[in-house]
Amino acid sequence: MLLEPLNPYAPPSVDDAPVRKVSPEPPRDGAFRYRETRNLSLLVIGLLGACALVSLLHIWSALIENELVAQVLLGHFDREAFDAVDERARMLQVASAVTVLSTAMAFLLFVHRTSTNVRALGARNLEYSPAWAVGCFFVPIASLWKPVAAMRELYWAAEPEHDGTSWVRRETPSVIGAWWVLWWAAMIGFSLNKELLSGSHPEQVIVHNQVGVAVQLIRVAAAVCGALVVRELSRRQQERAYVVFSRPPRKRTKKRKEPAFEPLDDSK
To answer: Where are the alpha helices (DSSP H) in the chain?
Structure first.
């Protein structure tokens, strides 16, 4: 007896219906929820640019002051010019304090969000919690190496392709290492210049400003490296998020059923 063949005009079954694509929710992992970092990273990069600009203005002001001090050594003293230098220096100190404080707050917020995101995107075996990734910047002595270790962990945990634990790496990316070395060099140089090289004698003022120019150049380089670190971390998170929840689902293929036939009975 011949079974009924497939009817090509029959309505499709549930399994044959096309898969409807639904915009997924942001991935979550327990208490951790993914949040986009693009706008926040742009804010941090902009503030780092403002810090670099203030440092360049410090350099410009120091060079002008050195020219005036050199004129003093030659016997020419311009009080109005020195008053203008002092007023400009006070304004730059305020601008520097505001930009540094604002940048630090935005940067630490970015670090906290990144640490939360990498967990929401499936990273496992992380040593630094979101709170500890921020708090380690404020711990005496440990702040010498803990922050760079936390940033290294976030860098590799945000790797686009990993299965949760294969992201673990030991080496520190060069851009993170350069940022951290430059940042500490600028801080140490600023403190030493302020405490050891400051003075009222014209020659001391010139040396103080020359060292200050070098310190400000290091701060500019540190700001550039910091911006590169933030941009790279943001980019890696976006690529990882795409891999986790924006990859097209696998299409289900249904094997076509071949018509079945009953064996013929030759005896009939």
So the answer is: 38-73, 79-120, 130-135, 146-157, 174-196, 202-245
Flag whether 82 is in a domain: yes
Q: At 77, is the secondary structure helix, strand, or coil? A: coil
Please state the rounded mean pLDDT for residues 92-115: 95
Q: In total, how many domains does the chain have? A: 1
Cβ-based neighbour number of residue 56 at 10 Å: 14
DSSP at 2: B
Instruction: Note whether 148 and 137 are within 8 A (CB).
Output: no
Rounded mean pLDDT, 59-77: 85
In b/e form, how buried is each residue of 168-186, taking b as 16+ CB within 10 angstroms?
eeeebbebbebbbebbebb
Q: Is residue 21 part of a domain?
A: no
Per-residue model confidence as pLDDT tens digits over 193-223? 887 766 678 888 888 889 999 999 999 999 9
Structural tokens at position 102: 């604002």
Are the beta carbons of 159 and 236 closer than 8 angstroms?
yes
pLDDT the model gives residue 19 = 39
pTM confidence score: 0.76
In a domain, 115, yes or no: yes
Mean of the per-residue pLDDT values for the chain?
81
Is position 263 within any domain? no
Residue 90 and residue 85: Cα distance in Å, rounded? 9
Average pLDDT, integer, range 249-265 = 52
Sign of CA pseudo-dihedral 137, 140, 142, 148: positive
Give the domain extent around 239.
36-245
